[in-house]
Amino acid sequence: MDRKIRVGAVSYLNTKPLLYGIERSPLLERMELITDHPASIAEMLLKDEIDIGLVPVAIIPEMREYYINTRYVIGCNGPVGSVCLFSQVPVKELRKVLMDNESKTSVALAKILLKDYWKISPEYEEASSGFLEEIKGGTGAVVIGDRALKQRSISSYGYDLGEAWKNMTGLPFVFAAWISNKRLDPGWVEAFDEANGKGVRQIDQVIEGLPDDLINLKEYYTRYLSYELDAEKEKGLEAFLKKIKQ
Questions:
Q1: Owning domain of residue 26
Q2: Domain boundary at 141, 169, 197, which?
Q3: Planar angle of CA 246, 109, 206, nearest 5 degrees
Q4: Which of 37, 53, 93, 219 is deepest in the core (most CB within 10 A)?
Q5: Distance CA 1, CA 181 (A)
Q6: What spatial distance separates the first Cα and last Cα of the chain, rounded to whole Å?
């Protein structure tokens, strides 16, 4: 490729370990780094406005051609902490669920869990600006990212979607991966993989300077989040993609 590789990333707390290494890598000179929320990065990838993005895996069925790059993903093997269904009443009493439109994966996962795990059929509605104020009575909401970490101390009930998936399937879950819409130079991918891994291996350095008022970051990065794409996560991803195709 005779130009810089266009890379789309997400600047949530959960992506900081991956971005830590990328932003400190000589590879940065060979890429154009764009940050936005997950749904926006996904849309850019689908429109070929970027070459690779840390995108919700739920967009995979929409892609004509796709490649999962690097050994690193945003995943969990149990509770994830930052992707939750919040409500003021028990989940079985929900009549409507507002969907945080920043991540297609979280929306798809929530619908699967509500149907197959909690076995309820609420009305679904795309969340609008200020939707957190609407979490009351029989209305709940799926909230992701830093907003979810804050909401944990506000709502009466919080249901972790990573934990619910693990309980239902026995498998880990992959929320986002580095997906490209074309084959990329193997040498660049190898260097990009190494850059991702640097922050994952240096969590204490990543934490320095980050706000820690929402959650214990050391615990969040080492207990809740799981960044390596191993065989079990591949099984979890395959099971999820099969369910959303259904």
A1: 5-77+172-229
A2: 169
A3: 140
A4: 53
A5: 14
A6: 37
Note whether 31 and 5 are within 8 A (CB): yes
Kindly state whether residues 71 and 178 are assigned to the same domain: yes
Q: What is the DSSP letter of 116?
A: H
CA 25 to chain centre: 23
Residue indicated by tokens 């259904």: 246
Q: Residue 155 half-sphere exposure, CB side, CA atoms within 13 Å?
A: 30
Structure tokens at 61: 């069925």
Q: What DSSP assignment string belongs to 148-162?
A: HHHHTTTSSEEEEHH
Q: Does residue 99 share a domain with residue 45?
A: no
In terms of domains, do 98 and 73 share one?
no
- pLDDT for 103 equals 83
Sign of CA dihedral 207, 38, 114, 112: negative
Residue type, 194: E
Cα–Cα distance, 84 to 79 (Å, whole number) = 9
| 205-241 pLDDT, tens digit each | 999 988 877 789 999 999 999 999 999 999 999 999 9
**The two three-digit tokens of residue 17, written as one number:** 């370990």
Question: 223 and 111 in one domain?
Answer: no
